[in-house]
């Protein structure tokens, strides 16, 4: 079993789609081992997305991620990282395959409903940013 980190972003939460996304997570066979509803501050969003600090979209991204509540999760499944990324779909909802979360719930590349770790090292950092070990069941 592998663990990955996931976020239901503020746009999906605001649109009332958090429950639908969570239902799909369970339907697809993931076990949710950690879950929190948060309202990130700008500083917390900047810390989480620090790897993008030099990118031109950094301010827009961190402003968006601190614009409303989100749901952060640790998911567990065989090949969880790839499985979650496949379920999310392409970063740009216009390019995402039918049936993926971003195609169904994303609006545009900057508001694409979900986030997921892209590698085991990234997942370890991201899970540790939001969850203490004792919080993961």
Main sheet strand line-up? 2-3-1-4
What share of the residues does DSSP label as strand, in percent? 15-25%
Task: Give the oligomeric state.
Answer: single chain
The helix/strand series, from N terminus to C terminus, equals: EHHEHHEHHEH
Amino- and carboxy-terminal Cα gap:
14 Å
The biggest sheet amounts to: 4 strands, antiparallel
User: What is the CATH superfamily label?
Assistant: Nucleoside diphosphate kinase-like domain
Q: Determine the CATH topology.
A: Alpha-Beta Plaits
Provide mean pLDDT, rounded.
96
Low-confidence stretches: none
Radius of gyration: 14 Å
Total number of domains: 1
Structural class: alpha+beta
Estimate percent helicity.
Answer: 40-55%
Number of strands: 4
What coarse outline follows from CA principal-axis ratios?
Answer: globular
Walkthrough of the structure:
The protein is an alpha+beta fold and 137 residues long. The protein has one domain (2-135): Nucleoside diphosphate kinase-like domain (Alpha-Beta Plaits, 2-Layer Sandwich), CATH 3.30.70.141. The protein is 40% helix and 19% strand. It is built from seven helices and four strands. It has helices spanning 10-14, 18-27, 42-48, 58-65, 80-88, 101-105, 120-130; strands at residues 2-8, 31-38, 70-77, 114-116. A four-stranded antiparallel β-sheet has the order 2-3-1-4, sandwiched between helices. The longest helix is centred in the last third of the chain and has 11 residues, at 120-130. The radius of gyration is 14 Å and the shape is globular. The two termini are 14 Å apart.
């Amino acid at each position: 079993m592998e663990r990955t980190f996931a976020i239901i972003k503020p746009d999906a939460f605001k649109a009332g789609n958090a429950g639908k996304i969570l239902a799909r997570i369970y339907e697809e066979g993931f076990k949710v081992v950690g879950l929190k509803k948060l309202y990130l501050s700008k500083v917390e969003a900047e810390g989480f997305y620090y790897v993008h600090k030099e990118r031109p979209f950094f301010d827009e991204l961190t402003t968006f991620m601190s614009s409303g509540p989100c749901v952060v999760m640790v998911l567990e499944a065989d090949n969880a990282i790839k499985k979650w990324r496949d379920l999310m779909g392409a970063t740009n909802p216009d390019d995402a395959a039918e049936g993926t979360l971003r195609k169904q719930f994303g609006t545009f590349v900057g508001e694409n409903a979900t986030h997921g770790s892209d590698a085991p090292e990234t997942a370890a950092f991201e899970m540790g940013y939001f969850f203490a070990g004792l919080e993961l069941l």
